Amino acid sequence: MRIVAVANQKGGAGKTTTTMNLAAVAAEHSRVLVVDVDPQQSTTWWADTAGDALPFDFAAEVDAAHLARMRDLPYDVIFVDTPGNLTDSAILESVLEVADFVIVPTEAEALCVPPMVRTIQQLIEPAGTPFRVLLSKVDMRTAGQLEGAEELIETIGLPRFTRAIRRYKIHADAPIDGTVVTQYPESRQTAKAIDDYRAVALELMSIWAHEAP
Ligand SMILES: Nc1ncnc2c1ncn2[C@@H]1O[C@H](COP(=O)(O)OP(=O)(O)OP(=O)(O)O)[C@@H](O)[C@H]1O
Ligand SMILES: [Mg+2]
User: Fold this and answer.
1) Is the residue at 212 inside a domain?
2) Cα–Cα distance between 50 and 57 in angstroms, integer?
3) Ligand 1, atom 10: nearest CA belongs to which residue?
4) Which residues form the CobQ/CobB/MinD/ParA nucleotide binding domain (predicted)?
């Protein structure tokens, strides 16, 4: 069992979208639980809209201090969506104490990088939890956006997922529709959207496969 925190104190980085869709893809092969410790409760709202259609289990309003106990539950992976602000730092710190891995989604914009670096340097690195940056909401129609962001992360020397998450309208609509990526109406855009998350899930698997037993 692995506990994966999805964290970045920069708001709107794509944490909730990453949590729900990565969980959906992981649930195709594993027993998955999503936990919401964010007082803003975006994941909970999304999960409520989805109702019984959700392809994984969901736990709302979880006290981060109780997360360690959840390790004994019969799941292969627990994804934890965390708060995107500085006020709730204590919640994030509690999550990082028990997490085995941290996914750090960030928008592919230069101005979003300093607040992300702050979260990494002040909270993630001190906790000693392995992490990777995940470029999110990447607009493929903006020439050079992806390459520019990749170069910036490279220059700072942060580990990142090779694959990025592209920006699609279907992702923005999903919380209102109560769907996750594996349930979007079939289209070329859906196929690409699913492919992004499958690629990230595979990268996670390969990181874990190379870990010492
Ligand atoms: N890949 C994407 N394509 C299109 N829209 C996206 C994508 N990822 C996120 N969004 C949209 O961007 C906004 C912010 O995303 P999200 O809520 O996932 O970020 P967050 O980091 O959880 O925010 P917060 O810090 O407020 O918790 C939402 O409106 C969401 O629908
Ligand atoms: Mg969120």
Assistant:
1) no
2) 12
3) 172
4) 4-175
